[in-house]
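DATA SHEET
Item: assembly model
Revision: 1
Owner: S.N.
Input lines:
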Amino acid sequence: MFHPLIVLTTILLYAGGLFLIALWVERRAAAGRSPANNPVVYSLSLAVYCTAWTYYGSVGIAATSGMLFLTIYFGPTILMVLWWVVLRKLVRIKHLQRITSIADFISARYDKSEMIAALATLIALVGVMPYIALQLKAILSTFDIITASPDTAPGWVHSHMGLVVVGLMTILTIIIGVRKLDPYRTA
Amino acid sequence: MQTFKTPFRKPEFQALIACLAFLFFSWPILTILEPMRNGFVFYYLFVAWGVVIVFLLLIAISHR
């Protein structure tokens, strides 16, 4: 199997590649020639629906329940038919109310109540935590499988992989996503 | 071309397609199809899925 350092280096190179692509898209967008503003890129980017856990979850459901696993994909496909009505409305409200999160969105419905926003944040936090844990479990399980070796004892990288992945994901989220949030931006 | 695009742009038409799609992937259609030839449901599901995707494409084209 692969050496843990090789796998870690591959992960770092992949994350670095993602960052470079994001940077390139940002610069092109600033020049008014955004490659993201393209139907093909948009369609392909919908693949983010398939998370790290999908590789395990979908295959697991297909193995145990057969075609029932297809429902995970039928639902969003059918709802996409209504995107032109629902999503446009959401984007319009988002621009108008300068909304940056689901908590903002729900509280905007109730006169921007801070209490409602705090409650929505709390529910989202509690709800999303097991899902994020599942993604990390998928990454770490994959790491364990592809670095498994009966001859050598687990090294530092192997035993601290969880922390490394969480750190990497946090850094990427900050540099690619959160730093772009601007509640005062109107468009 | 405009005559072809008009119905696809209407929210009522999109809601109808969504309702029909929900019907095609649920009871009782799947229950009726199940006892038919072995493996028929498998092909039916993928063909119906393809039809919904074609409708998505037509709706997207109508908004251009």
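QC remark: The interface with chain B takes residues 39, 67, 70-71, 73-74, 77-82, 84-85 of chain A (CB under 8 Å).
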